[in-house]
Amino acid sequence: MPQGRVVRQDELTKEKFGAKATSQVDAAMFQALTGEDGPLPAGLLPSIKTGTEAGAKRLFQALDDENKQVVKQKKENKDKDKSEELKPKTLSEQAGDKLQLTLEQATKARKLGIQLMALDYAKELSEQLKTHATAMESVYTSLCSATAKDPLDEREVKRILKDIDDKTSWFEKAEVDYDEDPVPVQVSTLLPHEVLHALHQLGGDQVREKVNETIANLTAWSLKHTMAGTAPLVGFSGEQFDRNTFRHEMAGKPLAGGFKLVYFGFKADLKARKQCHLFTKYYLCKDCCERCSAVKPTTSAPHPMTYKNMAPNAPYATTCIDHDQYVATCDRISPWSAIEGFQLETVTWDFMHVVYLGTARDHVPSVLKMLHHLGYHYTEGETDDHFLKCIYMEMKKDCKQKGRHVLNFSRLVDLSNKRCNKQTVVLVGQQEMFR
Known about the structure:
By secondary structure, the protein is mainly α. The protein has 13 helices and two strands; from the N terminus they run ααααααααβααβααα. The chain has a two-stranded parallel sheet with strand order 1-2. 11% of the residues are buried. Residues 177-189 and 410-435 have low confidence and may be disordered.
């Protein structure tokens, strides 16, 4: 009989079976079938030829009933494509949506209002936003109380919802979105609130610098035409003038009857000097002067470049720079250099802050203290108040004769102040002041 094919080890089954017969079977035939060389040897499947190894594997899986799996087909949901019927929200649901909106808007308005407090031109809008935030918080509380009532007072809830809609409409108009990219601002063609909106989009310190640059360029454009003595033909941004307007009628014509206005100098207080001209050396820094190497010492140790050295040959006096050196060494040149005739030397000091509200407040009391200490008086044994009043009357009379204004300082100084002693007073100019 033909021999069965050789079966690979991985094709062997792990199951064992035995064959029993109850009828009389020919022993020789049984041995021939189940013997080692028979077609049905013990522990093996019948010899079945397949074309490939994968086919043999699938055949074994088909013969194994335990590996059969019945795949249940899912029933398609017939209602899947049916559109849900939209129903209008109830008044309670509308109130719930408005509660979240109201709270978010109040938070956003208060945050924006605080951010705008640092901008000088936006203080009014800042206050309006903070007022709006407070109003929205109050409305939120009222709506919570109204929705908690049982039964619901529909009339009251509708009134509050309408109030929220009105306030939201105002906020959407007042809200300003900040943008990282600078936005060109054409001052001559925008309304004030449009300028404000455009400037807000700059954000942070960039706003101040952009405003400063725009004002400097606008001033330079104006002075260019006043120096020429003729009115401009187009606006600051190159826009044409509307017909039948004063600017259209004046275009190209002489200004001020032939007189010309020229740039002379830039005067500002210390803070404005730093912000307008982008100085990196200013009064709050150790290097406190933009024109020389004077230093404001941070310790009590002597410093060769200290600004307190008032001698004519002070070391820092030899380090003064001119405009050309300033342009060559500065990090960013002043935007006001766009004005024809601008020089670093023309950035002058504000005499009112430097003298009247600055050094004079220390020098004048020191001089008066020293005069009183040296024995100058109007009457023997006079009090400090009487001494100050007499000085005031004398100065007032003198200033009136010379057409000058004098402040009433009769009670500004306490000459008995122990901190104002002869070791700390500064004696300057008393002869010029009282001659």
